[in-house]
Amino acid sequence: MSEFAVLIAAIGIVFLVSASAYGVLAVIAVLVWQRRKPLGRERQQCAVSVLKPLCGPEPSLYENLRTFCRQNFPEYQIVFGVQDTNDPALAVVRRLQEEFPSLPIDLVVSSSQHGSNCKVSNLINMVSKVRHDVLVMADSDAFVCPEYLGIVTAPLQDESVGLVTCLYRAVPTRSISSRLGAMYINEWYMPSVLLAWLFGHQGYVSGQTLCICRETLDAIGGLKSIVNHLADDHQLGERVHALGKRVVLSHYVPSAEYHEPSLARLIRHEVRWMRTLQVLQPRCFLFLFLSFSLPLALLGFALAVGAHVLTSIAWVLFAVAIGTRVALYFLHRMREPRRALADLWLVPLRDFLLCWVWCKSLFTSRVTWRGNEFDVDGKGVMHRLS
């Protein structure tokens, strides 16, 4: 065998080692998280204001928002916000106001823009209606249990805690593009977050749930300080850290309905997410392909299998990589009512699509968000193009 062939085979083994090592560590991280014991029982909290920015119709918007109206919590209000007087979400809010007359539900309708990030602009408009000192900002697609508010606000009783956030679990609608999108969250993004968490990284912050005291928010300059950023949730966490306060990852994991009507829209959505990751970790982003275990394993096996002396090693590493990838597919489906094998055939498509989106994001600084085009600079600041 030539030296060149040996070199190619060695590169293949390196790829296989990387793919299998990532898969094993990701599975361990998920298992450790799933077996994490909640902290002590939550004590009664002070009153809370829940901020829910809305934009357009969603398949289960009423059902999702209704879960926030049925909280086992002594005192809280909900503030809904829209930026368009013709937004279909308005009808859902009014329905909830009629259904829960004893619950303080406020509605803010304002088209005022305070920066390029429309979601944060919406939140800024809503702050005028806030009545309480503890704020919980949560996305419109979240579905939570009645104990949600008590659990996620409990860590704020510790004065060293400045912000509480959550992981989340994506629940797809029936379309294939929605199922592929949910797999991105559940089988790649969340395991990657948990792997970083396992090694002590404390930088994860998700807009799915953000709990913060009004005093802390004012101290970092309010929401206006992040209104032009693509990764507004991450920027909020960075500013809280700068105050010397901790960001806590709650043990509660809300569900989030995931709906993508087309593959093209899914790709645009994921390019925006990838661009966000690129802004947050520009040096590490080039090596993100090491977490694409299935494509990396296939490439590594193809390179290594030609070297007969390495064939046995290649087969073992390939089996480990494939086995751990399948394990990540099943781990979040253990309690899922849908058939466990329903989307297994989508795993190769999902992983190669992930590679494509990553490659695409390397060569563009443009993202699409809510139908608008933005250019995102190296600091994560969004500049509207259309």
Would you kindly provide a brief summary of this structure?
The chain is built from 13 helices and 13 strands. By secondary structure, it is of the alpha/beta class.
Structural summary, described in words:
- There is one protein chain.
- The chain is of the alpha/beta class and 386 residues long.
- β2 (76-82), α3 (89-99) and β3 (105-109) form a beta-alpha-beta unit.
- It has a single domain, classed as Spore Coat Polysaccharide Biosynthesis Protein SpsA, Chain A.
- 46% of the residues lie in helices and 15% in strands.
- The model has no long low-confidence stretch (mean pLDDT 90).
- It has helices at residues 3-34, 61-68, 89-99, 118-126, 148-153, 176-198, 214-219, 232-242, 263-280, 282-285, 293-304, 311-331, 347-362; strands spanning 48-53, 76-82, 105-109, 134-138, 142-143, 161-165, 169-172, 209-213, 246-249, 255-258, 366-369, 372-376, 382-384.
- A seven-stranded mixed beta sheet has the order 3-2-1-4-8-6-9, with helices on both faces. The protein has a three-stranded mixed beta sheet with strand order 5-10-7. A three-stranded antiparallel beta sheet has the order 11-12-13.
| Overall form | elongated
Report, as a whole number of angstroms, the end-to-end distance.
58 Å
Q: What is the CA-atom radius of gyration, in angstroms? A: 22 Å
Tally the helices: what do you get?
Answer: 13
Which CATH top level class fits?
Alpha Beta
Q: Which structural class do you get from the secondary structure elements?
A: alpha/beta
Q: List how many beta strands DSSP finds.
A: 13
Strand content: 15-25%
- Mean pLDDT over the full residue set: 90
Q: According to CATH, what is the topology?
A: Spore Coat Polysaccharide Biosynthesis Protein SpsA, Chain A
Helix content: 40-55%
CATH superfamily descriptor: Spore Coat Polysaccharide Biosynthesis Protein SpsA, Chain A
Overall number of structural domains:
1
Please name the CATH architecture: Alpha-Beta Complex
